[in-house]
Write a structure and sequence with these properties.
Blueprint lengths: L4 E4 L15 H13 L4 E5 L5 H10 L8 E7 L11 H8 L4 E7 L2 H7 L4 H17 L3 E7 L1 H7 L1 H14 L3 E6 L6 H11 L6 E6 L6 H10 L4 E4 L13 H11 L7 H4 L2 H12 L16 E2 L2 H9 L17 E2 L7 H11 L10 H14 L7 H11 L8 E10 L7 E10 L2 E9 L2 H13 L11 E9 L10 E8 L4 E8 L2 H28 L1
Parallel strand pairs: 1-2, 1-8, 2-3, 3-4, 4-5, 5-6, 6-7, 7-8, 9-10
Antiparallel strand pairs: 11-12, 12-13, 14-15, 15-16
Helix pairs in contact: 1-2, 1-12, 5-7, 6-7, 8-9, 9-10, 13-14, 14-15, 16-18, 17-18
């Protein structure tokens, strides 16, 4: 199997994306993760442009990377400047990165109209910079910026810029679709024309402004390119870069081009979510291969089919990229969905007269009222156990009261009193919070701590959403409240529905704690056995 070099630029080009920002320490964390999964090259930043990237390379010098070669990024020398006197090239060498990636201009429009330079001086800048860095013992990757636009405008000059880099000794020439406007058939045609005239390894760097970064990258690989540049989750300037979480499995599983070991490919979903977490960006559920919805099935006919043969509705096995199959419960589900979920959760059906057909009917009724169980699987599991007599609430609400005070010039203050029953005992607690739901959350935790030896401090509510079911009723409309919670072991979502937003919030909140306590107690009983 032919091997492709994966060059990750999340820590440089990815940070040019809107809302994406990493500290030097966060970059180190991600670089270690990328290295552990077997990425070949990690472009870590531009040490000549900002103190943060210079700090990163200082920290990186103390770390031994097992698989990846670190690359420092920068530009060719400035016009009419000797390379050994150029401050940018000095900074690249001071970084001590074993690989240096520099970009230069391929488009005569940029050379003459943006840089106010001459075409000949631009060629000298490319040659001199590459040759100097090679003389200093560095592996040099040359990024031909705007190459495809440049080639379409002036093919002869664009090709000359590549030859200047080759003459200087570049190890790899990377062709960049910097504006992201090239179509796959254009890219293939250009690669076919220039491939034979460039006697070094070629790479591709595609942007996603036409939604074609992945398609262009795969097209380039098919045309013989052997270095693939991209970012995890497609982070990058404007519409982003080629998403390596799509590129890698397509290359390896569909095109037979080896990128990672099979073991590391199974960690691709983990890597995607890790980078999202460090970037403080919500993971995109619909992301191919690694998204939470990538292998999610809702329609009853689909579920019935995958229970017999998964490939009827799945193009690969989700485990190959570290993802899982999910069967969703909604008003579109049939008894096959219920059977599948019950088996997945280890719940026996038939108790209390509730078989899969009757449960599917009840789910459809509840969803008609506004519930949405495909994104509230914690509530669904509790509901399934309640239907079949396999769940007894660990606590019951007797009453709650919420008050809100607002004084002129001061923020609102919320107070909650909660009375719950556990067995024959009752407990009343009060707490304040940033809003009524937070106050209820705090009061409930205090009450539960009196009865259960469970560390609820490790349970966090990480998302809270309110949706109006039918806005035609104005402020009296029914609402649904989603709460997403997590602890050190996992994530779960719950839902509440009511015409009163506080009651709906309580319902979702109560389900979240019932789920947490039941899972923890079941785990403890299993450990004792």
């Amino acid at each position: 199997m032919k091997t492709i070099s994966i060059y990750d630029t999340t820590l440089r080009d990815g940070t040019q994306g809107e809302k994406v920002n990493f500290s030097a320490e966060e970059k180190i964390k991600i670089a270690k993760k990328l290295d552990s999964i077997g990425i070949h090259y990690i472009e870590c930043g531009w040490p000549g442009s900002n103190p943060r990237d210079a700090s990163f390379f200082e920290l990186a010098r103390k770390i031994t990377f097992k698989h990846a070669r670190l690359a420092a990024f920068g530009s060719t020398r400035k016009p009419n400047t000797r390379p050994e006197q150029d401050e940018n090239l000095k900074a690249l060498l001071l970084s001590e990165a074993p690989v240096v990636t520099i970009f230069g201009k391929s488009w005569d429009l940029h050379v003459e109209q943006v840089m106010s330079n001459t075409l000949e001086e631009n060629l000298s800048m490319i040659y001199d910079s590459v040759a100097y860095l090679r003389s200093q013992g560095r592996e040099v990757i040359y990024d031909a910026e705007h190459f495809f636009d440049g080639y379409k405008n002036n093919p002869d000059y664009a090709t000359k810029t590549l030859r200047a880099a080759v003459s200087g000794g570049a190890n790899v020439i990377v062709l960049c679709d910097t504006n992201g406007g090239t179509l796959p058939f254009e890219l293939q045609d250009i690669l076919t024309k220039i491939r034979s005239s460039i006697p070094v390894e070629l790479g591709i760097h595609a942007h996603n402004d036409c939604g074609l970064a992945v398609a262009n990258t795969l097209t380039a690989a098919r045309a013989g390119v052997t270095m693939i540049q991209g970012t995890i989750n497609g982070y990058g300037e404007r519409c982003g870069n080629a998403d390596l979480t799509s590129v890698i499995p397509n290359l390896q599983l569909k095109m037979g081009l080896r990128c990672l070991s099979e073991k590391n490919l199974r960690r691709l979903t983990e890597l995607s979510r890790y980078v999202s977490e460090v970037a403080n960006m919500a993971p995109y559920d619909g992301r191919p291969f690694v998204g939470n919805s990538a292998f999610a099935h809702k329609g009853g006919i689909h579920v019935s089919a995958i229970m017999k043969t998964p490939r009827a509705y799945e193009h690969i096995e989700p485990e190959v990229v570290g993802n899982i199959r999910r069967v969703l419960i909604s008003d579109l589900c049939g008894k096959s969905n219920i059977d599948y979920k019950a088996r997945e959760l280890g719940i026996e059906l038939g108790g209390n007269g509730f078989d899969s057909k009757r449960i599917a009917h009840e789910i459809k009724r509840l969803e008609h009222e506004g519930y949405q169980f495909d994104i509230a699987e914690g509530s669904f599991e509790l509901l399934l156990k309640k239907f079949t007599g396999q769940f007894k609430p660990l606590f019951e609400l007797e009453s709650f009261r919420v008050t809100i005070e607002k004084d002129k010039g001061l923020p609102c203050r919320a107070y909650a009193t909660v009375k719950i029953r556990v067995g024959d005992q009752e407990e009343i607690t009060a707490a304040e919070g940033n809003g009524p739901v937070n106050a209820l959350d705090n009061a409930l935790r205090k009450a539960l701590n009196k009865f259960f030896l469970v560390d609820l401090k490790k349970m966090h509510l990480i998302d809270f959403k309110v949706r109006v079911i039918d806005g035609r009723d104005g402020t009296s409309a029914r609402v649904k409240v989603f709460i997403e919670s997590r602890d050190q072991k996992g994530l779960w979502s719950t839902i509440g529905v009511s015409t009163d937003i506080i009651e709906a919030s309580w319902e979702a909140l109560e389900d979240s704690f019932q789920y947490k306590l039941s899972q923890t107690l079941a785990s403890e009983e299993s450990d004792e056995e």
